Amino acid sequence: MNTTVSLTELAAMELASALASNNGRSAVTVCGGRDAQLRQTVMALRAGEGLSEHSSPGEATLQVLTGSITLRTSDQSWHGKVGDLMPIPAEVHAVDALEDCAFLLTVVKAQ
């Protein structure tokens, strides 16, 4: 069954959840899942929060839906604002919320 998802509505709901949570984060998977090859997740972070350094299980992109973020590796960083689509480097990286934000994380697992 094909279901249309409003990323705008999901971003607003997840951001509200992140702002109300103790850790300042919230996420919901909108397509795929842990056992699927493709996974898309709307994630929200309160300003000043982030995702600590980690590796990706495959190719990945991040699309900023609200707010702004910094995507960084040990020696580089990129600023993302609403509408930006950012390829995630195939190395250890982290995400920092410069403002309250929500983004769509798309991951295709390596075979």
TrEMBL record:
InterPro entries reported for this sequence: RmlC-like_jellyroll (IPR014710), RmlC_Cupin_sf (IPR011051)
Please name the PANTHER family in this protein's record: SLR8022 PROTEIN
Q: What is this protein called?
A: Quercetin dioxygenase-like cupin family protein
- The scientific name of the source species is Salinibacterium amurskyense
